Amino acid sequence: MKTEFPAQYVDCERRIASRRLSRLAAFVIVCGMVLQYSAELFAESTRSTIDHVLPRMVKIFGSGKGFKGFYAYSTGFLVSPEGHIATVWSYVLDSDQVTVVLNDGRRFSASVVGAEPPLDLAVIKIDSEGLQLPYFDLNEVEEADLGTRVLAFSNMFKVATGDEPVSVMHGVIAARTNLSARRGRFQTPYTGPVYILDAVTNNPGAGGGVIASRSGNLLAMIGKELKNTDSNTWLNYAVPITELRVSIDQIITGIFDTPESEDQEMSIAEEMYRPEMWGMVLVPDVVFRTPAYIDAVRPGTPAETAGLRPDDLILFVNDKLVSSCRAFREAINRQEEGDTMKVVVRRGDQLIAVEFFVPSPEER
Amino acid sequence: MKIQDLIFFLAAAVAVLEPLRVFAVDPAVKEAETKRVELLSSIAPSVVAVFGQTGQGGGSGVLISADGYALSNFHVTSSVGDFMLCGLNDGNLYDAVIVGIDPTGDVALIKLLGRDDFPHAVLGDSDAVQVGDWVYVIGNPFLLATDFHPTVTYGIVSGVHRYQYPAGTFLEYADCLQVDASINPGNSGGPLFNANGELIGINGRASFEKRGRVNIGAGYAISINQIKHFMDHLRSGRIVDHATLGAVVSSRSDGAVVVSNIMEESEAFRRGLLEGDEIVSFAGRSIRSVNQFKNILGIYPKGWKLPLVYRRDEEKHEIYVRLRALHQEAELLSQGGNAPPQPMPEPDPEEKPEQEQDGQGPKKGEPRRPQIPIPAHGAAAAKVPEKYRHLLVKKSGFANYYFNQLEQTRILGWLDSLGNYANAEGTWNLTGRTDRDQAFDLTMAPQGVGLELGEQVFVQTLDDVQFNDEPPDTGGFLIALHQLKQMLVRHEEGFAELYYLGSEPLDGFGPQVDVLATTFEGLESFWYFRKSDGRFVGFNSSLDEQTDDCEVRFLSWENWQGRQFPKDFQVRTAARDFAVFHVEKFAIAPPIAPAD
Fold first, then answer.
1. Domain check: are B222 and B277 in the same one?
2. Residues A77-91: pLDDT tens digits?
3. How far, in Å, CA of B407 to CA of B411, rounded?
4. Has B286 been annotated as catalytic?
5. Is residue B362 part of a domain?
6. Given CA atoms B156, B162, B166, B167 in this order, what sign does their dihedral have?
7. By Cβ atoms counted within 10 A, which residue in A23, B71, B368, B569 is the most buried?
8. What is the pTM of this model?
9. B218-240 in b/e burial notation, b at 16+ Cβ within 10 A?
């Protein structure tokens, strides 16, 4: 804060300023006491942060065992009361048998709900119905300033097994920058903001771990082991949760209404028509070529009238093959107001053709 | 006060305090810093830089007593020879000699020489350590400290009760502390201090990976509580061994830890433990994973007796079992040699599957994994300071037998205080009644031992080395008594071998006792002396490894014509009482001259 007073006003007040010095000193002392008190709270908060975070961390075991340089384990954190777990998208999840071990040693089989490869993000789920597992509320995450003292939690080196809690490290956010890194010879897809840390946080198995502020706020997810493109040194970085939150939410809810990632060419402005306008709800578009299955048909809509059903696979629009959800969205946006759109779906081993009227985009 | 004054005052306060708030150092921070500096200057003098006699090798250590005992890693001392040079932060180099080694636990005890007022660390309680606690690693990483002022690194505890797989069958880090303070080559053997400056561990290992042999934020320290269990064993100058239960445990699908295999020669089996039994607790700690079981097993020496609770058919049973040796003697002796002087890399955890560990080393029939290479002793062992040459006595099974002799002398001194038994080689006669109200008459002659108990008579002759379980189901009480006589009359002369073993809690729950071990005509016995006052509290004698010991415990003593001898003593075996003997008369006849 800057204070600007006319010079003459300050001059005339100088006489009485000295009398106020003692009061000023008292004020400073009070400020000091407040600061000291907050420092004590701070020390106490480290333990309570650890107690808060550890029960929300999980150890993930999957594929990769037996291959040199590959580790069959990683880290994750609970993000919903239903047992959703956010983690890094990696080969560890590329297995029929992904095992999640909770902080207290309970073991679960997990299934992959969805992934966002451009963010190196995946969401997996365990069946924890009725268990009331603790989780991170992603609406409460914060962004952190440079110099913030943080704690890192991860299953690095698989030091922890069974009911052993994951490893905890301390550090400081040293920088916030955009990621420029590679894995092997390949440039990483994610080039967005990351926190750079002064501790060796990115070890084997640490991916999917979290960075929390010392006061207990969830800040970021530890990424895979990567090397800096320019210096060829190993990076210690984490992706802010604020960058991941929307995608995590979309994967959990299955509603992908705001395509954000860069490789999805369609902008919102171009997307005049949406499948929902005819009452078709497609399956979550989780991979690059998600087949265009109908997930649900809304009652009282043209799709229902036409007799479409959940699990129908959309194959053709106006006799042109559509190989994915995205291709279908692109195809319907090539329609003109007043057209008749011919859609062919596969149901079992039958092909069924239906027709839709294309209304003006405003008539949704 | 005019309203303008007030406004001015507040504005001025804000103008002054705003930059202050940004740049001023929080007094709590200053205070913490001052405290930290004071603490470090108080503990740094106890930190040791360890080198070989020719200045080769190098690692760290920490003094734990004023007379110079210091802890380090086995993998540090093994590479620098039996005599070493130790630098302290007073700038001086001191001669030091090896005392005892624990190759499995990667611990070595050494003794710095030339002073009796060494600065030394205070031992803390590593079980009280919590994740998030601040810790200091002090030592000589990269051998930077040419003036022996140690390097300090600072961090937090990342994990407690961690289990780190052994390299081969040695250098297992069980129940260890994981820290993010930097541990680098050269830090090995150095101290881990808590925020109060108490010694909570010995740093010795780190996770190394593709980034090279430098810290990557995961270092491991042997917990000081483990070392406390081994401390007297190390002071004995022996090459000490860790233990196995004699049973293999594994995780059941419901998470329970169950016995999947058990050796019939093990004491656990004799006490009733069977395949399929669920381990509920061990050494007083509940068991929820195989790692946890291995953690507990890994911190106790061979021969300790520990409580074990198991569940079978919903019923819990508590037993006390004596732990068996983890290694065969020959394997252990091979560890007297050299090993690399750097923090040992954590073995690749992928090498061993997660749930298939037994904690007992390789199973029968499986090939042993490669051992640590042991290069021959180099020039290190050649140079011995003349002044201290007598402080090293080589003997098989010992790192330095000199220190065992010291402890033997201490304990045999306690025996001498029982009175003059030197001329008591003649026939001993004890009469009295047992707690089952049977009269007994016990005769211990040079030719044999005889016991009349009620209507029955039992005899053990001493003409040959055929020793029997007499009376039956006592574990060989009569031959045990003969050894007691040998011990009281002839001390070490009465045995083929006598050495100081270390200390243990008597019977797994009693007071800590110093233990002497003896061999008499192939029979092993252990003699117990209460650490607090040196009182002789009993002994165990065994006929062979497969049978239970005969356990004799002295309940009270009496002075019989100038000699102390037990008035009441209890005899038991296999966790069953045989009898308590109340001695009413104890007489020693003079030796009978040979008939011819």
1. no
2. 999 999 999 999 988
3. 6
4. no
5. no
6. negative
7. B71
8. 0.78
9. bbbbbbbbbbebbbbbbbbbbbb
